[in-house]
Amino acid sequence: MERYDIAIIGTGPAGLSAAVTATVRNKKVLLLGNKSLSDKVGKAHDIQNYLGLPDVSGENLARAFQGHLDNLGIQITQDKVNAIYPMGEYYSIQSASGSYESKTVILATGVNFGRPLPGEEELLGKGVSYCATCDAFAVRGRKAIVIGYDKEAESEADFLSQMAQSVTYIPMYKDEPSVSENVTVLREVPVEILGADMDGMAMVSALKTRTAEHQADMVFVLRDTISPTHLIPGLQMDGNHVEVNLQMETNLPGCFACGDLAGKPYQYIKSAGQGNVAALAAVGYLSSLKEK
């Protein structure tokens, strides 16, 4: 498998700035995220404090970002990262479409992860999953409920329906979902994930909604973004943000965080600056590995 020097998770100002800096430093870069870049940037009406671009609209700023990527030949790999595991000399990055390896990781995912449902964190890995393709093997012949926070979750529900005894899909958005006939659509509001004792271990038993309890062996919670503590084990947090030093280093060697994820203020120009610092720190870390 190809091993990258720097994997960057997120395509907002922080992630793009990190990708530009790392590319200029001749590193093999993997940029994972949405090819349409950041919705927050694109929908901004007027940005007044981005140096050199006074009174720029979000749309025009996003266009400038894309032009910079194109100029350097930087490609975005559109994929959703579900888990990152430290493997000693590298990080294993698990996504909806496969896996990647990188010597370092820069987290630039923003802070849009939702508040967990009661029971979600306690039952994670015990029937609660954030990735349908990753844990599809465990759903064979069992009842699954998929809570989808965007349209992309529909394809994962369809995928599960090929193996599961039954799949119930709960859309958390207004648009009418387009899923296969093997998937049952339920317009409900999830309240709690329930567990039951099985051989001395609590396992998922049902999903409680505002009106009923629905039996399930597995519950897939498919949000736009995942809490950093769920994304990568052992990551030190400071409240809702990843704890970093001035070099954007986390407590995990070779792992860096920048942008909104690293704390306030939530400003585009601050995120871009931190992305630059994180990339330079990652380059320095790679150099130290060579010396060893």
Please provide a written account of the structure.
The chain is α/β, with parallel strands linked by helices and 292 residues long. It has helices at 13-24, 39-42, 58-72, 153-161, 228-231, 268-291, and strands at residues 3-9, 29-32, 76-77, 81-86, 91-95, 98-107, 128-129, 143-148, 166-171, 183-185, 190-198, 201-209, 213-215, 218-222, 237-238, 241-242, 255-257. The strands form four sheets. Strands 1, 2, 3, 4, 5, 6 and 17 form a seven-stranded mixed beta sheet that branches. Strands 7-14-8-9-10 form a five-stranded parallel beta sheet. Strand 12 (201-209) and strand 13 (213-215) form a beta hairpin. Helix 1 runs parallel beside helix 3 and helix 1 packs parallel to helix 6 (268-291). It is globular, with a radius of gyration of 20 Å.
Secondary structure elements and pairings:
Blueprint: E1 3-9, H1 13-24, E2 29-32, H2 39-42, H3 58-72, E3 76-77, E4 81-86, E5 91-95, E6 98-107, E7 128-129, E8 143-148, H4 153-161, E9 166-171, E10 183-185, E11 190-198, E12 201-209, E13 213-215, E14 218-222, H5 228-231, E15 237-238, E16 241-242, E17 255-257, H6 268-291
Parallel strand pairs: 1-2, 1-6, 2-3, 6-17, 7-14, 8-9, 8-14, 9-10
Antiparallel strand pairs: 4-5, 5-6, 11-12, 12-13, 15-16
Helix pairs in contact: 1-3, 1-6
How would you sum up this structure in a few lines?
The chain is an alpha/beta fold and 292 residues long. 23% of the residues lie in helices and 29% in strands. The strands form four sheets. Strands 1, 2, 3, 4, 5, 6 and 17 form a seven-stranded mixed β-sheet that branches.
